[in-house]
Amino acid sequence: MAFTLDRIDHLVLTVAHIDATVVFYTEVLGMEAVVTNGRTSLTFGVQAIKLHQRGHEFNPKACHPTPGSGDLCFVTETPLDEVIRYASELRVHVEEGPVERDGAMGKMRSVYFRDPDRNLIEISNYV
C-alpha cells in the first residue's frame, strides 16, 4: 500500500431539513452547529458531520444521496442508562437496547434510536 490512513475527518449526511437535523443533533447528542461559507456542519471533539440539503447537495457528492440511509455509531463514557433516561425526557424513542455489539476496538453495549430523517443512531459504551 502506498499510504496509510490516520482517521476519518468528516462524513456527509443528506437530510430533508437541515434545521430539524441541527436541533436533533445539538439537543439530543450535544453536538455544536457550525456554519462556514454557507455550509452547515455538526461538530464534536475533532469530528464533523457535514449536512447537505436534499436536492441542493454540494459537488462532488454521493451517487445516490438519500435522507435516512445513514447508520452511525457514537461512543460515549456516559452510562447507557443515563443516555436512555435523557433520550426519554426528550421523547426520543429507544428502538433497541442496551444490547451487546462488536465495535472497532472490541466489545461494546449499545442503544439505538433514529434522527429526524430516520437514520439509525447507535450510542455505545465500550466494556
Task: Name the descriptors.
127 residues, alpha/beta, 2,3-Dihydroxybiphenyl 1,2-Dioxygenase, domain 1, four-stranded mixed beta sheet, 2 helices
Distance between the termini: 33 Å
Q: What is the tally of helical segments?
A: 2
Biggest sheet features: 4 strands, mixed
Q: What is the global morphology? A: globular
Strand residues, percent: 35-45%
> Structural class, judged by helices and strands?
alpha/beta
CATH class (first level) name: Alpha Beta
Mean pLDDT: 95
Strands, total number: 8
The percent of residues in helical segments reads 10-25%
CATH architecture: Roll
Q: Number of domains in the coordinates?
A: 1
CATH topology: 2,3-Dihydroxybiphenyl 1,2-Dioxygenase, domain 1
Oligomer: single chain
The CATH superfamily label reads 2,3-Dihydroxybiphenyl 1,2-Dioxygenase, domain 1
**Rg, please?**
15 Å
Write a compact overview of the structure shown.
This is Catechol 2,3-dioxygenase-like lactoylglutathione lyase family enzyme. One of its GO terms (molecular function) is lyase activity. The chain is 16% helix and 42% strand.
